[in-house]
Design brief:
With about 270 residues, this protein is of the alpha+beta class. The chain is about 30% helix and about 30% strand. Helix 3 packs across helix 5 and helix 3 crosses helix 6. Bound molecules: biotin.
Length: about 270
Amino acid sequence: MIFSLSPQALAQFYRLEVFDIVESTNDLAAEFAKSGDSGRLWIVAAEQTGGRGRRGRVWHSPKGNLYASLLLTEDFAPEQAAQLGFVAGVALREALAELLPEKLQKESGIFLKWPNDVLIGKAKLAGILPEFITRGSKAKQRKNAIIIGMGVNVKAAPAVENTSLYPIANLAAWDKTCSPPAVFAALSRFWAENYALWNNGQGMAALRDKWLCHAAFRGEIIHLNHKGAMLSGVFAGIDDFGRLILVQENGEKQLISAGDVYFGAAAKTRPK
Ligand code: BTN
């Protein structure tokens, strides 16, 4: 498989390293960061042996899907990692919207599920793992970096640990011509465009509005596991930090920064 960056990404000085097999592209990106890489580096692998998902879960990574991580080395604040997860969600959705047949998009829709999943209809197609790291040992030399890992089910739809209550989708079921290199090229283009729009956080409001246009379950009752407790309420939107706004039955508004959202039948059998 031959992966390449889009002209838009090349024009903005992104670079690409491609591997046949790695443990985790996020871990490899962290190694690049620690050895002083200058950032804007995409790492793509055909297969992962230790792929990681959110909340310490395993991300099964057989050949045929896309596994990509982007290393950014600007001097970020930790909360910007969460914002960049939303930039990635918007970029990935736009990439898929460009590639997938219009008929599918009209019939099923491509949605963004808080915080960082991409769905086709109600089935999970892709997951995003933003991570904040510090590099350099001495306090004065310490620098931050953010790694944004993205996994897209192109050929296979492996069960996701603890979210097996959800249907999992793969692109091949909808469009046989979709390949990991095609998804990656489009992703690298829409990432470059949306990262420029985000503009170090100054464009977060515009980015959030884009995200909300395609948000799954907005205005609907959702169930959320948050710090070991189950909360229910209406998903009213997200704030500028990407926190989920939940309006509970008593009218109380809660801002949630991490958790798993359950809906429909899955909500009745969700893991405790
Ligand atoms: C999720 O739990 O939904 C996030 C999954 C993120 C998986 C991607 S695959 C590329 C990168 N490398 C990893 O080990 N994880 C991310």
